[in-house]
Design brief:
The protein is an alpha/beta fold. The protein is built from 13 helices and 15 strands. Helix 7 runs antiparallel to helix 10, helix 8 runs antiparallel to helix 9 and helix 10 packs across helix 12. The longest helix is centred in the C-terminal third of the chain and has 25 residues. It binds zinc ion. Zinc ion binds next to loops.
Length: about 400
């Protein structure tokens, strides 16, 4: 019951009477639960100190709101060759974070050990009390068996059946939840980002792979075997397509990813060593290669621009297929697609609208992630916030 109240409080200020109306619970029950939440420091009552006739005008009587820093969650984004760990508050705002890279050939145990070390040092550094921590959410790459917390298959890392939840639970005194990292990002957007108030949304993330997270009515849609959203492996090229790490040929992932874009950019730069792109790549002191590539395109390097346009077109076709199957209100783009969003989003949106059935594409909003590189950790922390706080059973 408390979780029900919390999910309403998460939406913003609300009164006991409104809570009773929304939940159908009696005002007595609400009052008792709220009293407990206030004692626990999770909920504060606006204007409580201004009682006795000094309440501010225009404010609803005894508006309740969450105290965002009353509890914290840990979010772990497990990418390909990189992991990020963050502590967030109840509004999924990052209070502290750490990024580490890892060798993709390293054993999973070594990678998990590195993450656990980062979690422990972040907690220590931030001085947060252990009993304020709700739990750990982990967004893993590839297929995840959520019920058992197992990373069933991560093709880009070569991992099979990694019991992530068990490993982390053995080492940390907090509850642990594991899901696919793109689904986690979709959840984060739906509750804390540009997806707020949107009933049906798809989050599409591209980096080393391409995946989608689907949210309907505030819930992650996983499909029957947790494979919903694996759009990176839809076939785009029938014959002569490049081999994909999944074992097929001509998948979307063989056409549109960061490594492919970088490879093509390096080729162009080697053919035109005096070109705009080459000079951007050379002078990219401390700037990430991918950022230099987008910068060169924005400054007018036509060749790299046409490569990015072509990739955006393929992405748009994939989005049109998503629109035809799911007909969502919005599609939010993250990772590579948001980073190069100035160029990619208009082209992908146009391709999507041209190819979606009838005029289904016209009303679909295409937005960049609200969180930039934080999307992964905010998403992972959202997994923990929803499993252990807002929607606990
Ligand atoms: Zn594939």
């Amino acid at each position: 019951l408390k979780a029900v109240l919390l999910s309403f409080l998460h939406e913003g200020e609300i009164s006991r009477i409104q809570l009773s109306k929304h939940t159908g619970l009696s005002t007595t029950t609400i009052t008792n639960l709220i009293t407990e939440l206030i004692e626990e420091g999770i909920v504060v009552e606006e204007g409580a100190q201004e009682e006795e006739g000094r309440r501010r005008v225009g404010r609803p009587r005894s508006a309740l709101r969450l105290q965002p820093n009353a509890r914290y969650a840990i979010g772990v984004h497990l990418g390909i060759g990189l992991h990020r760990v963050a502590i967030t508050n109840l509004h999924a705002e990052v209070v502290n974070n750490r990024i580490s890279t890892f060798d993709i050939k390293a054993s999973p145990v070594t990678v998990f050990e590195g993450i656990i070390e980062n979690i422990e040092s972040l907690i220590q550094e931030s001085g947060i009390d252990a009993n304020q921590l709700l739990g750990v959410g982990i967004g893993a790459s590839g297929l995840v068996d959520v019920e058992n917390g197992i990373n069933v298959l991560a093709p880009n890392l070569g991992w099979v059946d990694q019991p992530i939840r068990q490993i982390f639970s053995n080492r940390l005194p907090y509850p642990v939840v594991v899901d696919n990292n793109v689904r986690a990002m979709a959840l984060g957007e739906a509750y804390f980002g540009s997806g707020r108030g949107i009933n049906s949304l798809v989050f599409v993330y591209g980096r080393v792979g391409v995946g989608a997270g689907i949210i309907f009515n505030g819930q992650i849609f996983r499909g029957s075997h947790a494979g919903a959203g694996e759009i990176g492996h839809t076939t785009m090229v029938l014959e002569g397509g490049a081999p994909c790490r999944c074992g097929n040929n001509g998948c979307l992932e063989t056409l549109v990813t960061e490594p492919i874009l970088i490879e093509r950019a390096r080729n162009i730069a080697s053919i035109h060593p005096n070109g705009l792109l080459a000079s951007h790549l050379e002078s990219s002191d401390g700037v990430k290669e991918i950022d230099s590539i987008f910068a060169a395109a924005l400054h007018g390097d036509q060749e790299i621009l046409s490569v990015i346009r072509e990739q955006a077109c393929y992405l748009g076709i994939a989005l049109a297929n998503l629109v035809n199957v799911l007909n969502p209100e919005a599609i939010i783009l993250g990772g590579l697609f948001a980073q190069g969003g100035d160029i990619i989003i208009p082209i992908a949106a146009q391709a999507m609208r041209e190819r979606a059935f009838a005029r289904l594409g016209d009303s679909v909003k295409i937005l960049p992630t609200s969180f930039g590189w934080r999307a992964g950790v905010i998403g992972a922390a959202s997994l923990a916030l929803f499993s252990f706080f807002y929607q606990e059973p």
